[in-house]
Amino acid sequence: MPAMSGMASPPASASATTADAPVPQGGTAVSISDFKFNPATLTVPVGATVTWTNNDEEPHTIAAKDGSFHSPGMDTHGTYSFTFTTPGSYDYMCSIHPFMTGTVVVTK
Amino acid sequence: MSTENDPGGMTRRQLMRHSAWFGAAVVLTVAGGEVISHVAGSSGAAQQATPALRFAQISDSHIGFKGPANTNVTDTFNHAIGQINGLGYTPDFVIHTGDLTHLSTPDQFDQVKHMLGELNTPHVFTVPGEHDSTDDAGQKYRQAFGAGTRGDGWYSFDVAGVHVIGLVNTLNMQKLGHLGADQLEFVEKDVAGLSSDTPIIVFSHIPLFAMYPDWGWGTEDAAQALSYLKRFSSVTCLNGHVHQLFSKTEGNVTFYSATTTAYPLPAPGQGPAPKPVTLPAGKLRDALGIREVSYTKGQQALALKDQKLT
User: Fold this and answer.
1) What is the pLDDT of residue B298?
2) Which of A19, A48, B11, B93 is within CB 3.0–4.6 Å of A44 for a Cys-Cys bond?
3) What distance in Å separates residue B135's CA from the closest CA in chain A?
4) pLDDT tens digit string along B248-280?
5) CB-based contact, A3 to chain B, within 8 Å
6) Residue boundaries of the structural domains of chain A
7) Which residues face B38 on adjacent strands?
8) Which one, of B71, B30, B90, lies nearest residue B295 by Cα?
9) DSSP-based three-state secondary structure for B213
10) Which distant-in-sequence residues (6+ apart) come within 8 Å of B282 by Cβ?
11) What is the tens place of the pLDDT at every residue in B203-222?
12) Other Cβ atoms closer than 10 A to B205
C-alpha cells in the first residue's frame, strides 16, 4: 500500500488508515460501494465518530461541502473517520467523483 | 528532451526546424468520425504536404493503481512511452491529458515525472486529472508540472500556426468538471487577438462535451468557454478521463476522448458506476493505447491516429 501524503496532516479530530482499521460498532459506519455512500444519510448523536470504508476499486474521498472535513484519497479498503462535535446537517461528497453525495445529521 | 512544462518555450522557429525532419508516408484524416487513410500522393495535393505539427497524446496513466484491472500500470505506461519513442519521428511535443497519478502522492508524482522524462520529445505538456488533485486543490500537481502555467495551472502557446490551450477542469467541482470564472476570462482574452482561421486545439482532462453527465463525464461551464471559440473555423478538443475512444462533432468543434494506458472503464451507462473493468487475460492492451495528432497547413481538420498498446 503506498503512503498517502494526506495522512500526514489530517484534521485534528480525524484519522485515516489504509486498511485494518477497527470496524465501528452500531450506526456510525458508512460503506462506499459502486460509487455510492451507504447509507446516503446517516444520523448520529453529537460526539459520535463516523467511519467511512471504501469498498470500491477506485479511490474516493470524503469532503464536506462546507469545508469542515476532508479526507485524503482512500484507496481500496481505506477508511476515514471524523468526530462530529457540533449538531447540524453536514453534506459531503467525494471530491474525485463529485456526483457521489451523502449527508451526516448530527443530533443533540 | 525535457520533462518540464514549458508552454512559453515552444517557438515557431523550433517547430520549423523540427518540421525539416518530417517525412509523412501515410496521412490519416478524420471526417464524420471515420478515419480515412491515404498513401501520400495518392489522392490530391493536400495529402502530399508535410505536416507542420505532429504530436502524441497519452492519458490516464494512474501511476499507483494496484487493482486487478491492471496489476502493473507502470509497465503499461512504459510500453506507451516506448511506443511513442518508436513512431519513427520525434513528436513536436507529447500531451498527457491527466490522471497522471492515482492518488496524488509525492512518490507517484515523482515516478510519473521521471517516466515522462523518458519520452523522446522536446516538450511534455500536461493537464491535471481529478486523481492528481484529490486532497490539495492541485498544489502537488502544480509543484511537479505547473512551471510556466497561469492561474491554477492553465496555459496556452502557439506552434506551427496552431493555437493550443491547456485547461484545468478538475478543481472546485460540484458534480461535473468545472472551469470557473478566472479561467473562462483567460480563454476569452487568450483568443481575442487571433485570426478566425487559426486552428485551435484545447486540452482538458474531463470532456468539454456532455459524454455522460451522470458519471461526471462533462464540464458544467464548457459552453461558455466554447462560445469564445465559435468564430474559429477549426477547433479540436482532446480529453482523457473516460478511458475509451470517443468522438463527437458540434458545429465547428470536434471532441476526441482518448483511451488510457492503465485500465478500461465501462461504456457510458453500462453498469452501476464508472468502475475499472477487468478484461479477460491477454485483452488489456487492446483497450489501452496512444494517439498521434498532426496538422497540415491548408487542411481544416487535424488528423488523428489511435494505436492500441503493442
Assistant:
1) 86
2) A48
3) 5
4) 999 999 999 999 999 999 999 999 999 999 999
5) yes
6) 11-107
7) B27
8) B30
9) helix
10) none
11) 999 999 999 999 999 999 99
12) 30
Quick one: closest CA in B to A33, which residue? B273
Inspect the interface and report whether the beta carbons of A35 and B68 lie closer than 8 Å. Answer: no
- Distance CA(B234)–CA(B231), nearest Å, equals 9
Q: Give the cell for residue A34.
A: 459502486
What's residue B25's pLDDT?
Answer: 34
Count of Cβ atoms closer than 10 Å to residue A12 Cβ? 6
Residue of B nearest to A4 (CA): B105
B276 touches chain A (CB under 8 A): yes
Tell the residue number behind the cell numbers 511537479, with chain if given: B144
- Residue contact A61–B134, C-beta within 8 A: yes
pLDDT computed for residue B39 by the predictor: 41
What does the pLDDT look like over B275-308, one tens digit per residue?
Answer: 999 999 999 999 999 999 999 998 888 999 999 9
CA A13 to chain centre: 12
Q: How far is CA B262 from CA B77, B100, B161, B272, in A?
A: 7, 10, 33, 21
ipTM score: 0.77
User: How far is CA B258 from each of CA A8, B215, B310, rounded to the nearest angstrom?
Assistant: 34, 17, 16
- CATH assignment of A11-107, among 2.30.42.10, 3.40.50.1820, 2.60.40.420, 2.60.40.10: 2.60.40.420
B1-24 pLDDT per residue, tens: 444 444 444 443 343 333 333 333
- Looking up cell 478566472, which residue turns up? B182
Contact B275 A35 (CB under 8 A): yes
Whole-model pTM: value is 0.83
Q: How far is A95 from chain B (nearest CA, A)?
A: 7
The answer to whether B151 and B141 have CB atoms below 8 angstroms apart is no
Neighbours of A14 (CB within 10 A): 17
Q: Is B163 on the interface with A (CB under 8 A)?
A: no
Residue B145: Cβ-neighbour burial (10 angstroms; 0-12, 13-18, 19+): buried
How far is it, in rounded angstroms, from Cα B160 to Cα B90?
15
